[in-house]
Amino acid sequence: MNAFNAIVEEIKSIISSDFSGKKIFDKDVADTLGISQMNFATMKRRDKIPYLELLDFCATKSISINWLLYGQSPESLVEATNKFFMVKYFNDVHASAGGGSDTESESVEELEMPEQFVMMLGGERELKYIEAVNVSGDSMEPTFSYNDIVFINRSKTDLQRGGIFTIRTESGLFIKRVQKRIDGKVDIISDNKVYTTQTLDPNEIEVIGRVVSRFGDVD
After folding, report:
1. Among the three residues 79, 94, 111, which one is the final residue of a domain in this structure?
2. Which of 79, 111, 131 is the last residue of a domain?
3. What is the DSSP string of 77-136?
4. How far is CA 192 from CA 86, 114, 144, 216, in A?
5. What pLDDT, on the 0 to 100 scale, is given for residue 124?
6. Average pLDDT over all residues of the chain
7. pTM, whole model, 2 decimals?
């Protein structure tokens, strides 16, 4: 796999036409990928590749992620890229990242997932636990936005280490950052600081699963 520095240089070359011949700096690449300059510098120093941001970038530029990561030509990937996996998508279920309840039905579709994205979901062995639902509301912005599709691993329901989960309360279905307290209660946290943290007893929450990834629009 190409190192982070090499990928950055390729991106500079790809976006050069957008800068009318001007010198392109790391901050321009960070802005293009939607990553803060501080996080970008940390990723570069640690050679930590931002896969989801690169997937969005490649999609908008209509280029192959394998070419960017491995230098593989699209022609050499025809057979491999024809390999897809299916994930259940409950297209009428909306997990609220706000204050509303969910809307549920029996409507289920199947989303085709390329092998590269499946690896980001934990690999083929995890697919039997993965389901996709929609996001509504703004309480988890900028992490999640309205109309994002999020992928939930139903086998991961342990709140001990905290994280972002899809949960059900008496008010409906929610996507929230969940953190267990020393007193045994659970904090339900919104990433959008306009919203206050809610504290519930564990028996007031049904944990559906951990949110492991998302699809969303590119700003």
Report:
1. 79
2. 79
3. GHHHHT-EEEEEEEEEEEEESSSPPP---S--EEEEEEHHHHHHTT-GGGGGGEEEEEEE
4. 32, 31, 10, 17
5. 84
6. 83
7. 0.57
